[in-house]
Fold:
Amino acid sequence: MTQETGGGAEGGPGQAEAALMDLVRDATVRIHRPGAGYATDGPGQGFLGSGFFIAPSWVLTCAHVAMRGEGREVNVLFRADPYSAELTEVPGVVLAALPETRPAGVTGWPAPDLALIQLRRPVEHTCVYVTERSEAMLRGRKVRCVGWAPSPGGGLTTLSGDCEVKGTYGGWADADQQIRLDGDWLEPGMSGGPVVDVARGEVVGVIKSRLDDHQGGTAVGIERLRSLTVPAGPVETESDDTYQAVFHAHDRYHADRHNSPASTERTWADVQSDLPGPPGRVLSPKRRIDLLGRLAEFPPPVSTRNLLALLDGLPNVHARDLRPAPRGWRDGLGSLYDARVRVRDRDAALELVLRYCMGVLAADRPFDVPSTRTATKSLWEWVKRVADEDLSRDFRQELVLHWRAVRQRRDQEHQRAPAPMNEPARYGERAFVLLELEPRGWERDLYDWRIGVARPTGEVLPVAEDSQGTGLGALPERLAAPLAEAFRRCDEPDSPAVLQVAVVPALLGLDVDNWQVTPDGLPLGVVRPVVVRRTDQGPPTDELDRLRRTRWNSIRNAVMRAEVIDCEDGMAVRVPEVTDLHALAHETVPVLCRYGDRPGPETTAGLVRVLEGGFGVALWRRTGETDAVCTEFHRRAVDTVAEVRTSDRLPQKIHELRQGVRAGRTEMYWSDGIALFYDDPHYSLPGSGQLLEAP
Structure:
C-alpha cells in the first residue's frame, strides 16, 4: 500500500504513470456525514468513505457509503487546488443509488452498490476519465485502487494499492456481479474509490469491499451504471435521464479541456498518450477523446433498442451479447472495440468507427436543441477529415453520398413549422420595480438611489429615494424595506414583478441578484427576475435610436440567436468595434464570456461598445476567468437564447436558471453568476427630477 504524494512529471512510462495517478488523486474525494461537529481532518465518526468526480458536480461512490448519510445528504471534501493541502467542503445529495434500498435481512449492501452524488453548489474541480468499454476489468488485468483511509500518523490520507483481477462473484449477466481483486491490502475507508487501469489510463471500476484479514477485495465495473433507471416518460432534455446527463457532461468536460488553447494543464488524453498502452489502437487517446466529446453534443439515443439496431447493422459487432446493454453513444463506441479484435485490418476497423458515426448522424432523436445542428456539422467534419487522412477514395465517396442523404433529411425536419408555444405575459405590459443607483462623483463609493414602480404607460410612481449617499456594501440592508414596499405594489400571485436596476456602465456587473433583502435570506435573483440597464446613455442620435428600436422589435417578435463576441476557441478576444457590431443581425443577442467578477477598464469599454451597437439585450457572466475552459458556457448560452425564442421570455428564463442553481440542479450550474442586460428603448428612464421624494 502506497501513500500518495504529488510530483508526477512528463517523461517516460514511469513518469507518465505518476502523472496519471496525480490526476486520479486530485479527483478522489472524501465523503462525510453532513452538519457541524465532525472532524474533517481525522477518521472521526463523520467520515463515511471515498468517491471520485466522474463529471462536473457529480461524484460516484458506493451506495453503502453514500446512503449512510442523513436523509441522503452528505458532505464532499476534495482538493480544489492540486498544489495545496487544504480541502474544500461542499454539500451533496444522493440522486441515484443501485439498488435504492438495502433489502431486509441482508448484511451489507448488495451489488452493484453504486451511488451518484450531486453537488449542491457549483465549484471548480477535476474529473477522472472513465472507460467506455463494456467489460474493462478482464481476468489477469493489473489495476490500481485509490481511496482515502486513516493515516498511521493520524488523520486521513489518500492511499493506493496494486491489484490483479482474479475473476468474478456471480455470472457475467448477473446484476449482482462483483470483480474479485487480489494484491495489496485495501484499507477501511477506501470503499467508493476508483479502480484504475494503469496501462490504458482510465477508471474502470469502483472499490466495493476489502477482505477481512486478507489482501485484496472486490470492485464493481463502471459499466454497471448502465442499469440506472430509464425515465418512464419521454426524454425532452438531457437532464431528464441521469445516466445520459452524467456521461455527456463527462465526455464534454474532457474534450473541452483537451481542445482548449486557454488551458495549460496536462489533460487525461495527454497522459494517456504517454503511457505504453495496448498495441493496435485504432483511435489514439487524443482522437478518441475528441470524438467522444463530439458525440456528447448530440441528444442521446431514443432508446437502447434503437442503439442496438444501429450497432446490429455494422459488421462484426455483437452488441446484443453485452450485459448491461449499451445505453449511450459512448457505450456504442465501446461496443466496437471487441469487433476490432475480429477485424485485423486497421483500415477496416477505422471504417467501422466512421460507419458508426454516420449512424449517429442519421439516428432518430428524442428531442432537438439549437446546438444539435452545430454538433451535426462538427461530427461530419471529423469523419471527413479522418477519412481523407487514412482511407480509400471509394470509401470517402460512400461517406459523402451518405452525408448528402442525412443532410437532406435533417433540412426537411428543420423546415417543419415548430409547435406553437404558449404566449407568456410580456414584461413591457405589466408593472415592474425600478431601482436607480447614481454615483456621487465627489464621494467615491457612495451612491444616491431612487426606487419607483414603473407602469406600462411609462409613468413611474415614486416609492423612496435618498440623496445622502449610501456605501455599496450597505445598499442591500438600506434598500430592503423600500424594495419590499415597491414589490408589494406590483407583484401578482405566483408572478413576482421584475426588478430593473439602472446603473452606470462600470456597475453593470453589480451582483444585485445575490443581494439578500428578504427575511428568508434567499438571494433576490432567486425570488424574482432581476435585470440591469444603463443610466447615463445621453441623448441618442436619430440613427442609434432607430437601430435600438429595430433591434428590440426584432428580438421581441422573431427568434433570437446568441453570439459570443469576446471569446474565440477558448481564448479571450477584444470586443469588436461599434461599426462591426452594427453589422450583426438585428435578432442577435451578444454574449460576453470573459467579463469576470472584477471587470477592468478594457472590459467595461467593450461592454459600452455593445451598448452603443444598439443592443437592448445582452448576457454575460461575472464568474468568467481569463484562463477558464468556457465551452460549456458558450454551448448552453446559445441554446438557452434560442429555446426561449423572444426577449419577453428571457427575464423569466434567467430567473429559472438562478432558482435551479440555488436548488442544486447540476444542469443549470453553467449559468452561475449570469447577468442579463435588458433595456427596452420604448420605456426610457425618467430624469432625475421625475422621481421626487415619496409621499
Observations:
- DSSP finds 17 helices and 24 strands in the chain.
- Residues 4-11, 419-425, 688-695 have pLDDT under 50 and may be disordered.
- The two ends are 76 Å apart (CA to CA).
